[in-house]
């Protein structure tokens, strides 16, 4: 009982810090989620994301993702936290509709996450930028970014940035 109370007190104290508040909200909503750590190659960009151990990832063939070989999973923005001074090392590229915000490290050029056009309320996390050990299973689905409108309408991709309780049945 004392350990549970002590842990509860510690978690309550952590919850009040602004850095972890969004991640805490995600943890409360789905106890099956874990914290995944990751970032870019040079480690100037570091982040934590709250997501399940088993994720649905999207392999997109739009002109940008296809060139980079990007495979990403999408989470609500509240489940993602940039750490430390990471923001200082980021720059953003947009094209076409300028809806997607392709963030990448100014030093090494790696896109470890970005804001996707399909989910402007979410974050697309590059699977290969997640540190090993926390992802148990990755189901890869195809998203036809070359025929974006049709693929968006025929897939469930837009639901992945919604909080678990807000997702349509």
Task: Note the topology.
Elements: H1 2-15, H2 18-29, E1 33-39, E2 46-52, E3 54-60, H3 63-68, E4 71-76, E5 80-82, E6 90-93, E7 102-105, E8 113-114, E9 122-126, E10 137-143, H4 148-154
Parallel strand pairs: 3-10
Antiparallel strand pairs: 1-2, 2-5, 3-4, 4-9, 6-7, 8-9
Strand-residue fraction? 25-35%
What is the residue-averaged pLDDT?
81
Separate helix tally: 4
Which series of helices and strands comes N to C?
HHEEEHEEEEEEEH
Based on secondary structure, the structural category is: alpha+beta
Largest sheet: 5 strands, mixed
Output the radius of gyration: 17 Å
Based on CA inertia axes, which overall geometry fits? globular
Cα distance spanning the termini: 38 Å
- Share of helix, binned: 10-25%
Number of strand segments = 10
Q: In terms of per-residue confidence, which ranges show pLDDT below 50 for 5 or more consecutive residues?
A: 1-25, 165-169
Please list the strands of the largest sheet in the order they lie side by side. 8-9-4-3-10
Could you describe the 3D structure shown?
The chain is built from four helices and ten strands, in the order ααβββαβββββββα. It is α+β, with helices and mostly antiparallel strands. The strands form three sheets. Strands 8-9-4-3-10 form a five-stranded mixed beta sheet. A three-stranded antiparallel beta sheet has the order 1-2-5, covered by helices on one side.
């Amino acid at each position: 009982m004392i350990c549970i109370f002590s842990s509860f007190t510690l978690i309550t104290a952590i919850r009040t810090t602004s850095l972890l508040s969004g991640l805490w909200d995600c943890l409360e909503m789905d106890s099956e989620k874990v914290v995944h750590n990751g970032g870019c190659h040079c480690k100037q960009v570091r982040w934590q994301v709250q997501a399940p151990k088993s994720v649905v990832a999207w392999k997109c063939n739009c002109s940008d993702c296809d060139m980079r070989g990007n495979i990403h999973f999408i989470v609500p923005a509240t489940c993602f936290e940039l750490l430390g001074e990471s923001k200082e090392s980021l720059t953003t590229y947009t094209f076409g509709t300028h809806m997607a915000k392709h963030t990448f490290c100014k030093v090494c050029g790696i896109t470890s996450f970005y804001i996707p056009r399909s989910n402007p309320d979410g974050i697309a996390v590059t699977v290969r930028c997640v540190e090993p050990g926390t992802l148990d299973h990755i189901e890869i689905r195809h998203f036809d970014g070359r025929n974006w409108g049709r693929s968006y309408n025929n897939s469930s991709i837009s639901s992945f940035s919604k909080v678990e309780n807000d997702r349509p049945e």
